[in-house]
Design brief:
Elements (H helix, E strand, L loop, with lengths): L3 E8 L7 E8 L4 E5 L6 H9 L6 E6 L5 E4 L11 H6 L5 H17 L3 H16 L2 H14 L13 H14 L4 E5 L7 H13 L3 E5 L3 H7 L2 E6 L2 E6 L2 H33 L3 H6 L2 H16 L20 E12 L2 E12 L3 E5 L6 H8 L7 E6 L5 E4 L12 H6 L4 E4 L2 E4 H6 L5 H4 L8 H13 L5 E5 L7 H13 L3 E5 L3 H7 L2 E5 L5 E5 L2 H7 L30 H29 L8 H35 L1
Parallel strand pairs: 3-7, 3-8, 5-6, 6-7, 12-18, 12-19, 14-17, 17-18
Antiparallel strand pairs: 1-2, 1-4, 8-9, 10-11, 10-13, 15-16, 19-20
Helix pairs in contact: 3-4, 5-6, 9-11, 20-21
């Protein structure tokens, strides 16, 4: 039985319907990716599913007791509390127990108090009875993996950090159906990779919108496309969707050409002279009227953005030379002893965790920030254009026109003047939309506005800080082609792994201790070349019942049985990880969810069991290694 069924749903906001006769079913365990151009109505469809919007007509049937969670692009107002409290709110009734336990534990860490100790003990008993330790572990794991500080006040966070917290709240709630709207925005690569693995092993059904094509390819078992109010379903992965979608659009174009030819012929016929009008038949006239009405109601596809770079006169061969550079704030070192040379035509990707210092590195490379140690030498004839992820170059109160034209009616593109309205239409802004204030634009429109500003100025060095957020797939691919063909120099900060693979020729990667290491190629090339990570650590949060282990009173040697166990553990862990990897691969196949429900459930249960077995095996391995090291 489907979790959710939409039947003939229609929704409009005064103009053409955003949703028109939409039908959709979501089955347990499915991972459905919703694709569509910016502004097509993807978020509106998700709001209808979650109950935040009521459709104008149609029927929506939810499975009885369906538990649903949604991450929206907008941050809801009036959310208060610490990060821990906001994320724990996704647990429902357990949240108050966990929030109080977290608070009391922190107070006890600061001061010893018998009353607090007694309250903590009582809370632990209540959590034991409610099976709350697993929920606590989920909350703490999500906070850690998303790189959040549990005790920060939610209200003080940036918009990007707030969305990360709300993603955490959605993930810990363990819903039957999880709706995610651009979940990778503002996540670094490590967090995106963890999110992929989390969602692959999750037991809930998933519907998600994303511009991250690698995430889409790994997660989606089915793709649904929203185009001109209509929804079409495409079983299989993204590559299959792209191929079949191109075939459908080609067939649609061919059919429309035939239709338009017939309509033109009939229009010529009805305008013939008096003799033709005497002999014409009324059936043919009625048919022509029907053709005219059908043509009037046709909704054309949104045009494709037309992106064009203005290349300035070439820079010198050397763009920037960095020798032994270190930089930091206070006692914290951000970049340590970096040496690199960037030449004309290099396309350099910059990879690192959120907060590592990627923007600081850009400022050093551009000469905007003086290093504390070492030297930075800039080349000659540099014309720099900067795409800022914070959107600081957008004046919220000004219109789109004024943001790009800066008071002028024309812009000069490759030596030729163009009217600003025509130029903005290349970036899919209608004349009406071009006259609206920037503050009302969607995320995708803001990014297109930034591109319009960036590409209106000649440059031989492009600096792009997270340019891909909120762009639809077609605009992303156009931007990739543009940057690939750019003869100048590119400095690109991005968490979009496919974008890095397709554009950059080398990467600067932030590693431990402020070290920035240079690698040839893009993201996949870095994965191959980087030092292999150490064995995973056991989970930080362990259920209370498993924490009551006594430590040996002093150094001892391994027993024969323990030594044998230690010898066999690496092989056991390798086998468990291989089985886990195979299960993840099987579950990513589009045919997986076409099997019997019992087979699907068994596989998901095995994934959960494997995680526990691996955690226990790693913990045991470290325990035995510690005994062996201490015993000599």
């Amino acid at each position: 039985m489907p979790l959710l069924s939409l039947q003939d749903i229609t929704l409009s906001f005064g103009g053409l319907p955003v949703l028109y006769g939409v039908n959709l079913q979501i089955e347990p365990g499915e991972r459905v990716c919703l694709i569509g151009r910016n502004g097509e109505g993807k978020s509106s469809l998700m709001k209808c599913i979650s109950g935040e919007l009521t459709p104008d007509s149609g029927t929506m049937v939810r499975q009885q007791g369906l538990k649903l969670a949604r991450l929206s692009q907008e941050v809801p107002a009036k959310i208060a509390g610490t990060i821990y409290e906001v994320i724990a709110a996704g647990l429902g009734e357990l949240q108050e127990l966990l929030i109080r336990h977290h608070s009391v534990a922190h107070e006890l860490a600061a001061r010893h108090d018998e009353a607090l100790l007694a309250e903590l003990d009582a809370l632990q008993h209540r959590l034991d009875a409610a099976h709350g330790w697993q929920a606590q572990q989920r909350v703490e794991s999500v906070i850690s993996r998303l790189g959040l500080n549990a005790d920060l006040d939610f209200a003080t966070l940036s918009g990007g950090l707030k969305r990360r917290v709300l993603l955490g709240r959605a993930l810990v709630s363990e819903p039957d159906l999880l709706l995610l709207d651009e979940p990778t925005n503002h996540l670094d690569i490590a967090a995106i990779t963890w999110l992929e693995e989390f969602l692959l092993s999750a037991r809930c059904a998933l519907m998600f919108v994303t511009h991250d094509r690698m995430l889409l390819q790994k997660l989606a078992t089915r793709i649904v496309n929203l185009d001109r109010g209509r929804l079409t379903s495409w079983p299989g992965d993204y590559a299959n969707y792209l191929r079949r979608r191109e075939e459908e659009l080609a067939a649609e174009e061919s059919q429309q050409k035939k239709f338009d030819k017939k309509l033109a012929e009939e229009e010529v016929w009805i305008r013939q002279g008096i003799k033709a009008r005497r002999t014409r038949n009324e059936g043919r006239v009625r048919a022509l009227k029907a053709l005219r009405e059908e043509r009037r109601q046709r909704r054309e596809r949104t045009g494709t953005a037309r992106l064009q770079l203005q290349e300035a006169e070439s820079s010198g061969k050397l763009v920037v030379e960095v020798k032994g550079v270190s930089c930091g704030y206070g006692e914290k070192t951000i970049i340590r002893e970096l040496t690199t040379t960037i030449l004309r035509g290099d396309k350099v990707g910059i990879i690192g965790p959120n907060g590592a210092g990627k923007t600081t590195l850009l400022r050093l490379l551009l000469g905007e920030l003086a290093p504390q140690q070492g030297t930075v030498r800039l080349g000659t004839n540099l014309a720099v254009a900067y795409f800022d992820q914070q959107r600081a170059v957008i004046d919220e109160e000004k219109t789109v026109l004024d943001n790009v034209g800066e008071g002028n009616d024309t812009v000069v593109i490759n030596g030729r003047p163009r009217h600003i309205i025509g130029y903005l239409q290349d970036f899919l802004f209608t004349p009406e939309r071009a006259r609206t204030p920037a503050k009302v634009l969607s995320g995708g429109e803001r990014n297109r506005l930034l591109l319009a500003k960036l590409l209106a100025k000649p440059a031989n060095v492009l600096v792009m800080d997270e340019p891909t957020n909120d762009l639809d797939a077609e605009t992303l691919e156009l931007l990739e082609e543009l940057l690939f063909d750019f003869s100048g120099t590119l400095l690109l900060v991005s968490h979009d792994r496919a974008f890095l693979n397709n554009v950059v020729t080398s990467t600067l990667v932030f590693e431990e201790g402020g070290r920035v290491q240079e690698y040839a190629g893009g993201y996949d090339d870095w994965l191959v070349q980087r030092p292999q990570p150490k064995a995973a650590e056991p989970p930080a949060a362990v259920p209370k019942a498993e924490r009551k282990k006594t430590k040996p009173s002093g150094p001892r040697k391994l027993t024969f049985k323990e030594a044998r166990e230690l010898e066999e553990l690496p092989g056991k862990i390798e086998a468990l990880e291989a089985e886990q990897a195979q299960l993840y691969a099987d579950m990513a196949e589009p045919t997986f969810y076409q099997q019997e429900s019992s087979v699907i459930s068994k596989a998901k249960e095995r994934v959960a069991t494997l995680e526990q077995e691996l955690a226990a095996a790693y913990a045991r391995w470290e325990e035995l290694e510690a005994i062996q090291s201490a015993g000599g």
